[in-house]
Structures
1.
Amino acid sequence: MAERQGQAAPDALLTRIGQVVMLHHGGDREEARERLLGMWAELGEDGDPLHRCTLAHYLADTQDDPTDELAWDLRALSAADELTDGRDTGDTGEEGAIAVRAFYPSLHLNLAADYVKLGRADAARTHLHRARGACAVLADDGYGNGVRAAISRLELRLDAEGGSAGDGTWGPPRQRP
């Protein structure tokens, strides 16, 4: 029984994250940020990498300051790297490592978008290149096609504007946890 409860806890957290993401998409950015930050505090800096990746990925979207958004997106990438580089994979194990690989295109796309907002075109291009390279793991479905299209839009925008910051409407779609 204890083993089953341990396995249920990660699913429960992902469900809670998904509920808060819906709140955010419904327009309550401030409340979503506060709830996600509360979950981050519960999880801690040493919590399961898949959960930290997911939380940080969505926390970035709730930030008002582009520098804060970048910091959360970097935390998400760092947690994803923990899952895929052979370190301890936490509660989610190999399944978490497999799941997070599909996040890489979006993680790098988000970082590229952050760097565009901060006027750092070279860093944006680096992450766009990484996003494009990671797309092979995406399915040919709405989410995968949306991420690929967002990468193309940001590439075109950077080329057209010489890397200047835009209005942010070309960002990636978010995958539900």
2.
Amino acid sequence: MTVQSGRRERKKAATRQKIADTALRLFLERGYDAVGIRDVAAEADVAVTTVFSHFASKEALVFEQDEDFEQRLTQAVTGRAPHEPLIPALRREIQALVRHCTADSAAPIWHMIDASPALREYEESMRLRHAESLGTAIAADPDLSQTTTASRTIARFVIDAYALAREAADPEAAVDEIFQMIEAAWEATRPSAGGR
């Protein structure tokens, strides 16, 4: 059964990727607003219900890496080495994500997102969700001993760092500058040695 289950999962993942790739190609060729879910389904040679079984909305087709992005951020917290400082681990992950999203090939996608109120709104709700997940992961880490408010605040800063750096003329320099401020804010919220 394991082989069949593995094959089924691979087939499901391949179908999902085919739908996402088809949608993105159509959106870039014709314009986001000019393409409907039926167009995507027909071009990908799947049923409309299949599209919706993989993606909750048309906007989700553009942000198909959403779950991966969120998992990578929480993994930067939960998967770091014992006693590894939090902020450098998050900085490395944000730096990698910014490099990926500022590659020349990503520029047309971001232009499309910036031109669409629906996509900008979806991205904003996605960022809030990512910040909540990241804040929860930080607050749950027993080695960090931060308040929930401090954890959620730092998480918001980290998510905003990604967005601000992505839009900067020099994204890597922006990440460096922003994370200096995040590090200072994090240090300011740490319990003092005398208070422990």
3.
Amino acid sequence: MTRYMAKKKGAETSAAPSLDVNWDAEAATFDDEPDHGLRDPAVRAAWAARLAAWLPEHPGDLLDLGCGTGSLSLLAAERGFRVTGVDLSPPMIALARAKSADRDAVFHVGDAAAPPVGEQLFDVVLVRHVLWTLPEPGRVLRHWRGLLRPGGRLVLVEGVWGTVDPAGIPADRLTGLLAPLARDVRVERLSDDARLWGKEVADERYAVVAVV
């Protein structure tokens, strides 16, 4: 689940985002944010184009951790990926299931740090705005890497929000954590693409694609 977004408006001035959010209660209005619901065709197209560049050319199995209402899951499924989504919030999962009801996608209530997928392996682990909220990100990344098939990839969308007391994970820290886990790590800056967010943003937003 994109944990910071309910407090995102403050993050664009000087306040850091809050982790103290009731995500079950937020589910009904979660998709009102442009980059959550992707209801604006321009925002949706921007995310679809980014995913097309980040994901493998040939569709496979994709695990969307902290999937929220499943907007990115749906985009991946539309590209032919077999999607498994995981989120802690049952109302979020219910909305994700409804969005992808006619797609090759399944959704589970569970912890992104330890997803309930058994021994299943994936070609892609996709995570947006979740890692920074988790304790011991290095340990979590090692676990996520273990969910990938050889040649699979982690696609991580992260950032740093707020100026007075910033919260998040800087790109250089994340790439350092990934260095011993992946043979290729690429950073793509996202802050200057207003189409992704439905408005101009001033904080640090980026994606990392790490091929193992």
